[in-house]
Amino acid sequence: MEVIPKLERVRWIPLSPGIKLIVMSDMHRGDGSGADDFAKNSLIYRCALEHYLEEGFTYIELGDAEELWENDNFDQIYITHTPVYELLAKFHDPDPAKTRYLKVWGNHDLYWKDHEAVYRTLFPGIEIHEGIFLVAPKGRGCGASKDETQESGLDECKGAGGAILLIHGHQADPKCSGEGAAVSKFFVHHFWPDLQRCGVKDPTRAALNPGLCNEVDKRLHEWANHSDQGIAAIIAGHTHRAVFENLSLTERRYLESKIKTEGVEIKHQPDGSYYNTGSCVHPLSITGIEITYDRGPQLHLIEWGQATEGHALTIQREELS
After folding, report:
1. Model confidence over 183-193: pLDDT tens digits?
2. Whole-number Å distance between alpha carbons of 319 and 125
3. Which CATH code fits 10-319?
4. Are 290 and 56 in contact (CB under 8 A)?
């Protein structure tokens, strides 16, 4: 039976009434060239962060924030996206206990694992982690009924503490962790940017390969359900495909419409043990998961994107789940 691999540098955060978290992943901030997938959504992203800053949310960046497979160093990324980093600085506090900016590394920004000092030149005292555990108080939220936890999506908690684990998710993808990551990184660094500028899609990325997406989602779901670490749920990124209660948006639409396409396998039952934030490189939209806590944790899948109001073009928040 597969279990969650041992994680390096984890952060434990107690859930308490009034806490507000927004989790986003897979920005892939680049150098502003045609290979920079984030550039087209930069304004949407900044608008969303301004909202969360004003509303008192803590921002959790769940890996692949910087595209450090395609780019040799961080300098050009910072120069290109300085307004983003200036906004992130407003969330940050040098005191780890007070900061509202938490950062997790992914496979494309694994660089931060051994080069935290570089990022600290911008964000003094910041700690970069492989995983974050959200822990509910004993006797509250965990094991509560659906009515008691409102719309949490966490039907029950397993083990002491009932922690929600936040990881990037590449740990469940053999092509992007361990020895497989070295091969993928070599391809992406030396060949992919030029191919991308020509419109070629990368067949190795889970984000562009539904079959690989399914494999990664399945493994993460199994980890959440067969863990001896007291984990109630896993929230990940990596695949770029938003998942809520173990159902992708496509699967949820199939279930709601009762229409099934021949040959397409879908899950028929929601399961609150696995969620995925999606990404910030969708066509003209970004997704994330909001987490609040009252009598239990409540999770909501959110999309920010372009919309029209009369003759005006606006950026709006939509609750998908």
Report:
1. 444 445 444 45
2. 34
3. 3.60.21
4. no
